Amino acid sequence: MDADLPDDVKEDIGVIHKEAQRAAGVAKNLLTFARKQAPAKELTNMNSIIEGVLKLRAYEQKVNNIHVNTHLDPKLPEVIADYSQMQQVFINIILNAEAAILEAHNGGTLTVTTKKVNNSVKVSFTDSGPGIAKENLNRIFDPFFTTKEV
Fold first, then answer.
1. What stretch of H or E contains 69?
2. Domain boundaries 40-139, CATH class
3. Angle at which helices 7-35 and 83-104 pack, to 10 degrees?
4. Which of 4, 69, 103, 115 has the highest CB neighbour count under 10 A?
5. pLDDT in tens, 56-112
């Protein structure tokens, strides 16, 4: 990168580059989903994924008066997962939380927590939105389910 660029511009370019890589990963994941290919499983740090996604969303959260609390276990073990798929999952959850918060209030709170539970890693997202309607709970893991207008 050009050494003459201001630090904030370098950081913005870095974010754009990471987002371009994420977009390529999304396209790859759609192809994988369509072809039913196996995900690329590797040791993955969930805290790093969450921190990266929150950094990408920080500006929107700030302008929309959404306060983010994180309680990320620093001793969280790595898990075997597809990094890009987990990143997309967390982005979707956070986008849905932001939309719910804004629908119900003019701002609010999103809390993200990670912790080790027995031999598993638990990632929790809670927000000050209205929650998921009871009739939709059994569909939240359907890949293309939405309550939003398409």
1. strand 66-72
2. alpha beta
3. 110
4. 115
5. 999 999 999 999 999 999 999 999 999 988 998 999 899 999 999 998 888 999 999
Residues 26, 85, 46, 146, CA torsion sign: positive
Burial class of residue 110 in the structure, from the number of CB atoms within 10 Å of its CB (0-12 exposed, 13-18 middle, 19+ buried): buried
| Cα–Cα distance for residue pair 149/45, rounded to 1 Å | 34
CA angle 108, 149, 145 (to 5 degrees): 85
Q: Using CA atoms, how far apart are residues 124 and 119, in angstroms rounded to an integer?
A: 16
Segment holding 89, helix H or strand E? helix 83-104
Distances (CA, A) of 12 to 9, 55, 108, 111: 5, 11, 26, 25
* Mode of pairing for the β-strands spanning 66-72 and 108-117: parallel
Q: Is the dihedral of CA 64, 9, 111, 96 positive or negative?
A: positive
pTM of the model: 0.74
Q: Rounded distance, CA 80 to CA 62, Å?
A: 32
At residue 140, the 3 state secondary structure works out as coil
